[in-house]
Design a protein that fits this description.
Shape: rod-shaped
Largest sheet: 2 strands, antiparallel
Oligomer: single chain
Radius of gyration: 42 Å
Strand order of the largest sheet: 1-2
Distance between the termini: 27 Å
Number of strands: 2
Length: 162
């Protein structure tokens, strides 16, 4: 954008040259034979047909697009971090619930084994209690796994946000 705006203004270049001039060789290097030339060059964009202004407008539009892309990238990164944080919190609650369910199912299974040993219930009840306990343990393992996966996703989202 700066280059496109600068192209609208005149460009000035200055140069200087020095030397000696004389009609006779014997007076060539005398103090009065010194010659100095100062020249300037001024280039002005007069007849550009609006090309320079259009170039500046295109540069402004390109800058606006780049700014919008940057803004969208930042917002997307923050959204991903926020989503990952929400998932981690949900996973914490789900893991705690799964842990409590597994502990209750294990206690029920132990009680069923004691009742079976005392002849209070049949073996199918013991098997049902054991299946329930093992399914609860599997659910706990799955909840822990999901929590670890979401922690990794949070780390990745935070790395992208940097």
């Amino acid at each position: 954008l700066g280059q496109a705006a600068a192209a609208l203004y005149p460009q000035l270049s200055l140069s200087a040259q020095g030397g000696y001039a004389s009609e006779a060789i014997n007076s060539l290097f005398e103090p009065g034979a010194a010659l100095w030339t100062l020249a300037g060059n001024l280039l002005t964009p007069l007849l550009d047909g609006g090309e320079l202004r259009a170039s500046r407008q295109a540069a402004r539009a390109g800058l606006a697009v780049a700014l919008d892309d940057y803004r969208n990238t930042v917002l997307t990164a923050f959204q991903q971090v926020a989503d990952a944080l929400r998932h981690v919190e949900e996973d914490r609650a789900a893991t705690e619930q799964a842990r409590e369910a597994a502990a209750a199912a294990r206690a029920t299974f132990r009680l069923a084994r004691r009742q079976f040993a005392l002849g209070g219930i049949d073996y199918n009840s013991v098997l049902t209690a054991e299946i329930t306990w093992r399914q609860a343990r599997l659910a706990l393992i799955q909840a822990r796994t999901q929590r670890l996966l979401d922690n990794a996703a949070l780390s990745a989202a935070m790395a992208r946000a940097d």
